[in-house]
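Throughout our pipeline, every protein is held as a single compact record rather than as scattered files. The record that follows is passed on verbatim for readers who wish to inspect the format:
___
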Amino acid sequence: MAEFTYIVRTEGGVRREGKVEADNYNEAMEKLQSEKYLVVKLTERDTSFDFMGPFIDRLSLEVERFKNRVPLSVLVFFTRQLSTMFSAGLTIERAFYFLAQEEKHKKFKGTLEQIERNIRRGLLLSDALERHPGVFSNLYISLVRAGEVSGKLSQILEELASYLETIEDTQRKVRSAMYYPVFIIVFLFVMLISTFTFIIPRFSTVYETLGSDLPLYTVMMVDLGEWFQHNIFFVLGATFSSSFIIWLITLTDRGRLLKDKLFLKTPIFGPLIEQSVLSKFSKTFGILINAGVSIIESLSLIKKVVDNRVYELAIIDASQDIEEGSSISGALRETGVFPPIMIQLLSTGEETGEIDNLSLKASEFYTKQVNAIVDRLTSIIEPALIVLVGLVVGIIVIVTYLPIFHFGSALQ
């Protein structure tokens, strides 16, 4: 018998999760429907290779995201419209009907139509969104679910739209700042290929005709160029294969942990990643607590949002400590991951009863830190690339024209 994990809704609308054993998918579905459950999600688990479960799930999610990729700007506009429609009193079904009719993005239009059909069948909005993980992130689904529980769906959607707009602005800054570096790197790559393919071999031919040996560094560059010409497909294949294998490894728990630890220790990008994670954590925590979600459930949702294995494990440890009676700030302090500023703000929030507001204040602080780091990074990239190009061009010119300094001896 196979084992299936399920998420269902009872006749009273209560959400339940669990496992059921059956010979096949249809039998498992019949068992759940016989108990008058509305099946939200049903997935088969291979218990003989259960350790592969998380890896397969993440691989499937990446494929799903690639197939159904939707621009963030489209998602922001949709969220803002949906919030406005709810505020105006439209039902979920009619709101999605109108949004699907007006949507220009073909893939997203199909997604909205499927969500509308599932809502008409009786699914909650969060459950309908959960069927499209390639489009809607864990953060999006978690906040929508919190809005449904608290009855503040319109307000939370408005806050979510603002949050997504902040992310979009940051991404736009990074993209605009990367146009120039990408152009320079492509130019540098083309220049190196041209040098190794055309210029260096001509110098070698000239000196062979004159009967004079090339200097050592020029010989090394000529040999490198010839080796590259004869092994170009091997180099490209090895690069692609290595990148693909590393990507697969990062989908495993250990691979993710190693990757995230390495990135957090990176001199320039480490602080940027850390501030971004802290901004996500505090923003989501503040919204969920303000929506009336319990501390433990909030942390359970946040660990899916931070998108960093180091902080994910820290949140799991903190949740266990809180369940055993520790304070929120004390549990986070014990992890050794969260900074003193955030812990102090949360501690003050626990004492004053305004932990949600202070958590949102912390999010604003870390968002400003992210923007400041991005601005500094973009101001550093351009001169750094100019120096890099100058060094590479200078080395190539010197090594290429080094034989000219011995041109007199060659003529003799």
Observations:
- The longest strand covers residues 2-9.
